[in-house]
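Hi F.,

I've been meaning to write this up properly since the lab meeting, where we talked about keeping a consistent format for the predictions we share between groups. The idea is simple: the sequence comes first, exactly as it goes in, then the structure tokens exactly as they come out, then a line or two of notes. No screenshots and no reformatting. I'm using this chain as the first example so we have something concrete to point to.
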Amino acid sequence: MCGITGMFDSTLARRPFERSTLQRMNESQRHRGPDEDGLFLAPGIALGHRRLAIIDVATGQQPLFNEDGSVVIVYNGEIYNYAELIPELQALGHVFHTRSDTEVVVHAWEAWGERCVERFRGMFAFALWDRNRETLFLGRDRLGVKPLYYAMRPDGVVVFGSELKSIAAYGPFDHALDPCAIEDYFALGYVPEPRTIYSAIQKLPPAHTLCVRRGAPPAEPRRYWDVRFTTDSTISDADAQAELVERLRESVRLRMISEVPLGAFLSGGVDSSAVVAMMAQVSGQPVNTCSIAFDDPAYDESRFAQEVADRYKTRHLVDRVQTDDFDLVDTLAGLYDEPFADSSAIPTYRVCQLARRHVTVALSGDGGDESFGGYRRYQFHLREEALRSVLPLGVRGPVFGTLGRVYPKLDFAPRFLRGKSTFQALARESVDAYFHSMSIFRDDMRAALFTPAFKRRLGGYRAQEVFHRHARRAGTDDPLATIQYLDLQTYLVGDINTKVDRASMAHSLEVREPLMDHPLVEWLANLPSRLKVRDGEGKWLLKKAMEPHLPHAIMYRPKMGFAVPLARWFRGPLRERLRNGLLEGALRRTEIFDQGYLSALIDAHVSGRRDHSSPLWTLLMFEAFLRRDEQAGVPVKAGALEPAEAAS
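Output, unedited:
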């Protein structure tokens, strides 16, 4: 795993770049690749690389060139089918000088051009410069495991990198915050692709490439892949279970190719346990597994992880951490470079820290919930959909809309009494209802959160458009398939993959995700939804397929998740920091937020009347981001939201 960065003058001027600038940008990502660094500069182009050596440790240094030096690449990731592509490219006349998957990308570009990415199976983000074509080619993997940011500057220079911090290191840039990104963040807890928190910088979306040719008009990203939920397979239950095991085993086997120590995260949930079971079956030696144990039994799954470790006789490593592990707030703001509100980033950071003490590569179970239908919210949504299909919106809207407004919010009541959110969801059409269930600050809360001046800046934009934009591409009317598609395009990329990439790279740890193998994802999308959610059981197919391989209690126990006790923190050790940060600090200076509403949120939570822990954490992480920018000399004020020409 690595970090990449660079600059390209897309004008005919071919302005040279300073080596010191490229070194500064590259060094900002040292944590992504502590083993080696490499730089390439030529008129109008500069490429930087930080290397974490995993495959072809001896000869896989970057930047890497083709035979005559006319094509050069910096690359982050793993192409798992590279060994299959080498003989095909050799038959076309290409000569290899290394055993690295990076060189495969170079020759694949020469052979197949922009469509080369369609041949790759893996996780990747790369920047390739072709001198003869005077073309910069950027690519990102299908499911967005590896990140890639870029900025098209007004002077024609394209600046890019694995993290936002490398672009910031280029030099002064417009720090104007994107109002739409702020709206998205407070709805979802992250800034979804292609936006970043800054108007001047974008993310290259998953399954997209960007081809920038010198002297040509500004380029737009091109999509090269999408998952299609046909759900029309007629495979039997038994055959689906057998085929799934074989596909899982193959995906895991491919991801165990490494020249450095390798292991796995083991949480005790079904996804990570399935990955470890497959690893143990294809490995000739005991598997290294890593778990986090919490001192509070309400959050501790370590006994379940131990049960799987005992069954497969793994070398099991456990790190016990305090549940009150809230000292990472400022560390997280620096890691993510933009607001990020998933509090499970804290234990994720800790388990990566533990794993790196023993291995350089770790396999994870991420991506299983999205493809197998594992989230509990999927079952709630399907029950609501059954009612929505019976009652037309013209009836549901007025009836359930009224109930949603007048019904009290009973955060601490039994679930069957907490009907307010359900009524609100039933008053909406399907996509809006799912967005509502995923929102941290829901529509009425965001309406109260933002000042009138900020809402005018939004110009009527609402974060729901993120889901509607993807829903228009989903190509299915199956209720479960639709929301699975939405999660694959939004939550998986913007939340899960972002969280794991930054937490792992902070410790120079490579994480590989067998359940995000794109052929596996495509195959699962072809299966009917009854194989995913059945009789009130999520991940039905995965659990049935794993019954011979895992203890029954592991698969059929209630899902816990990687949670931290936010509600208690904000009523205890973080209470003063919360109040000071939200009411006296950087948030106040932005003129984005209604101060009376912030105060009411805090008071309602601290008093115990309501549980606003997730919204308050979202605000606290936004405050930490703003404070970090302030400390870097970037003023935080209403003017920071001005368009670039006004802000300057």
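Notes:
The longest helix spans residues 613-631.
The chain is about 45% helix and 15% strand.

If this format works for you, I'll send the rest the same way.

G.
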